[in-house]
Write a structure and sequence with these properties.
Elements: H1 20-24, E1 29-31, H2 37-49, E2 54-57, H3 61-66, H4 69-73, E3 75-78, E4 83-86, E5 98-102, H5 108-120, E6 126-128, H6 136-140, H7 143-147, E7 151-156, H8 162-167, E8 173-178, H9 190-197, E9 204-206, H10 212-224
Length: about 230
């Protein structure tokens, strides 16, 4: 590597956003993918020495296992959603205001990223999985619960029809999360993203492909505004 080529910052050079909670009500969140084990160890140390809270997303199981024992011990880690909490979640808000549903089982990891984010912030989300339109009766069985919620996060890949159908049946806000699930022309979630952006259901809002964390934060902003 030449002297002119960019290099990743050393772990000791990392500077965290320590005032985010005061500014916008969300704690520091770390995107784990692409960070070295040394960088993550330093981030966890800095968070621990601060207010002791933080959320890490896209933390692969192999990377989690490679962390220092002290760093691992301080984390509540879930390998399916690839999320980790540092510190205790925020106080429980009580009954469910936000729901998370999926079209298929393959969409569950993205949905659980949203669920874990919501739980970190004290929400108790309603959860329903495998509710895709290929078996519409499964969705219809859950309509009474969904209609009672302020926000529904609908997670779907392939043709991503679920958010549009839900948007035509329930009065709450709908946050669509297109996923990269699917074959061929599904194109890693591009078809699902386009389908949700083109939804004919009024008021469906869309986050980026596989962005369960972003969907949860959007839903939290919605319920906090009421």
């Amino acid at each position: 590597m030449s002297d002119n080529e960019p290099q990743a910052p050393a772990a000791s050079q990392l500077i965290l956003d320590t005032t985010r909670t005061q500014r916008i009500g969300f704690d520091e969140a770390i995107f784990g993918r692409g960070k070295s084990v040394a960088q993550l160890n330093e981030i966890i140390t800095q968070l621990s020495e601060g207010d002791g809270r933080g959320l890490i997303t896209r933390l692969e199981p192999s990377v989690f296992e490679a962390l220092d024992e002290k760093a691992r011990a301080g984390l509540d880690y879930d390998p399916v959603s690839r999320t980790a909490y540092l510190g205790n979640p925020h106080p429980n808000k009580g009954e469910a205001r936000i729901g998370v549903i999926t079209a298929g089982t393959s969409d569950v990891p993205v949905a659980l990223e949203a669920v874990r984010t919501l739980r970190y912030y004290g929400e108790v989300p309603f959860e329903a999985y495998d509710c895709g339109v290929a078996g519409l009766w499964r969705l219809m069985e859950r309509l009474e619960d969904l209609r009672s919620l302020a926000v529904v996060i609908a997670v779907a890949g392939m043709d991503a029809a679920l958010p549009s159908v839900v948007g035509g049946l329930v009065p709450g806000a709908i946050v669509a999360v297109p996923t990269s699930t699917g074959y061929g022309v599904a194109a890693g979630g591009t078809s699902a993203l386009n389908a949700t952006l083109a939804s004919c259901a009024p008021g469906v809002v869309v986050v980026n492909v596989d962005n369960g964390f972003g969907a949860a934060c959007g839903a939290l902003r919605m319920v906090r505004a009421t």
